[in-house]
């Protein structure tokens, strides 16, 4: 079955989504609004919802006027939000972004173990290393650590977190009132980690998660990111725009997974797909043009600058080509994807920011349920994707259209489920439950 994530920033993915006549600009801080979105995704039998996050306002702006035009400035902290949503949903997986650069392993292990218990085994962790100086400046730094250093820390971070999730064996807690034994001391394991970045004794003061470990999601496509994914990830959210690009990435990453001694089937690759779907082609095109007409040039240029690694491109002619720009410490794979798009399609800076305003560098699909399903099916059946992280144009209308139009077409073709077969996120994704100590044994 094709795996589907619902990527749900509050207003939607289009840079002008918050200005759409039907959108809720204040939705980022409205729990009832988010509850409605997640329930819609659950009605569509999505495997999981996916919430991205950053440790600060992640945008490039020159002045207050430019900042004031942005549409995604404030939103809930995702772990808090997903913990609340856990009691208002029954099946859909709940995946949140959390950085290894600006957190401590014990805190993260405790949070995700708690979410897994609260949701009865539906939590997922999108592991990121963060990518902006704006975030660094909120954590006692003037600039972010360099790319390789962030991944070096992340690898040790994962060793500590998985070790903490294995503090207690699955059946450690006896709760035997008659004998007075709360737990079996032989099934308690003290981590005692001392490494380059962390010194963590343990144990974790949360029992082993229902899933063993929450599902590990990762979104980096750089060489460091791919190596990290091949070792740790179980779901990979990635950025490709053409079938050839996707096949090269898919086959390459699956090989790296095997080289790490893992089963390639235990890693699901989900490229992002920005989707505008209508009952007719004309309706879909009208929806898209409505949003494109709302793009503020100041916001479009600022958003493109952010996607290119926070470089200032305001001094270049908007109707000229994108020049060669210096490399940055941001998301290097995303930057390269956007450069490739500009050159492949011969886009000016203005045309490029309008193109990126939709999918922010991800694959863009527009059409009827049948034509969009054709394109998703082509990638799924030709070693380019195990599924997709679906990116609605705006909320709630864009997500409603995907659930009401596209999902039934995929179900008719037998590509996605009509009912949930299991209850945990691992069961949805067809992933094995890690045995106690699995990560430590793999590291040896």
UniProtKB/TrEMBL annotation:
InterPro entries from the xrefs? Diverse_substr_monoxygenases, Luciferase-like_dom, Luciferase-like_sf, NTA_MOA
User: For FMN, which residues are the binding ones?
Assistant: 53, 97, 147, 151, 221-222
The family note in this entry says: Belongs to the NtaA/SnaA/DszA monooxygenase family.
Q: Which residues cross the membrane?
A: none
Keyword Transmembrane annotated: no
The answer, when asked if DNA repair is one of the entry's keywords, is: no
Per UniProt, which keywords does this protein have?
Flavoprotein, FMN, Monooxygenase, Oxidoreductase
What CDD domains does the record tag this protein with? Nitrilotriacetate_monoxgenase
Q: Where is the Luciferase-like domain?
A: 14-381
NCBIfam families in alphabetical order: FMN_nitrolo (TIGR03860)
Q: Which SUPFAM superfamilies match?
A: Bacterial luciferase-like
Coiled-coil spans are: none
Q: Which Pfam families does the entry link to?
A: Bac_luciferase
Q: Which GO terms describe its molecular function?
A: monooxygenase activity; oxidoreductase activity, acting on paired donors, with incorporation or reduction of molecular oxygen
**Name listed for the protein in its UniProt record:** Monooxygenase
């Amino acid at each position: 079955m094709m795996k589907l994530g619902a990527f749900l920033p509050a207003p939607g993915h289009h840079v002008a989504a918050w200005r759409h006549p039907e959108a809720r600009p204040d939705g980022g801080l409205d729990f009832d609004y988010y509850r409605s979105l997640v329930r819609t995704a659950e009605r569509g039998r999505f495997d999981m919802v996916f919430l991205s996050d950053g440790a600060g306002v992640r945008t490039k702006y020159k002045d207050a006027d430019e900042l004031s035009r942005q549409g995604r400035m404030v939103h809930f902290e995702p772990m808090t939000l997903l913990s609340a949503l856990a009691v208002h949903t029954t099946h859909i997986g709940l995946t949140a972004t959390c950085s290894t650069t600006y957190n401590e392993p014990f805190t993260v292990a405790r949070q995700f173990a708690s979410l897994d218990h609260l949701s009865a085994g539906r939590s997922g962790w999108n592991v990121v290393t963060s990518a902006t100086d704006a975030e660094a400046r909120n954590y006692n730094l003037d600039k972010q650590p360099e790319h390789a250093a962030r991944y070096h820390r992340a690898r040790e971070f994962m060793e500590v977190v998985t070790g903490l999730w294995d503090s207690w064996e699955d059946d450690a807690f006896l709760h035997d009132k008659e004998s007075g034994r709360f737990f079996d001391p032989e099934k308690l394991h003290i981590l005692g980690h001392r490494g380059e970045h962390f010194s963590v004794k343990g144990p974790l003061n949360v029992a082993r998660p229902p899933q063993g470990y929450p599902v590990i999601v990762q979104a980096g496509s750089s060489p460091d990111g791919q190596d990290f994914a091949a070792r740790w990830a179980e779901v990979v959210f990635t950025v490709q725009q053409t079938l050839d690009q996707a096949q090269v990435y898919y086959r390459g990453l699956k090989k790296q997974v095997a080289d790490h001694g893992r089963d390639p089937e235990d890693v699901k690759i989900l490229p992002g797909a920005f989707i505008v779907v209508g009952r007719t082609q004309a309706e879909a095109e009208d929806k898209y043009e409505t949003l494109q007409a709302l793009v503020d040039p100041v916001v479009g240029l600022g958003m493109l600058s952010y996607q290119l690694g926070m470089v200032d491109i305001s001094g270049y002619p908007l109707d000229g080509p994108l020049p060669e720009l210096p490399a940055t410490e941001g998301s290097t794979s995303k930057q390269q994807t956007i450069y490739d798009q500009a050159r492949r399609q011969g886009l000016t800076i203005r045309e490029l920011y309008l193109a990126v305003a939709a999918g922010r560098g991800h694959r863009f699909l527009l059409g009827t349920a049948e034509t969009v399903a054709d394109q998703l099916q082509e990638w799924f059946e030709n070693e380019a994707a195990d599924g997709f992280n679906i990116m609605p144009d705006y909320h709630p209308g864009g997500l409603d259209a995907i659930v009401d139009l596209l999902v039934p077409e995929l179900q008719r073709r037998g590509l996605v489920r009509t009912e949930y077969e299991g209850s945990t996120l691992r069961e949805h994704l067809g992933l094995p439950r890690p045995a106690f100590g699995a990560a430590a044994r793999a590291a040896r």
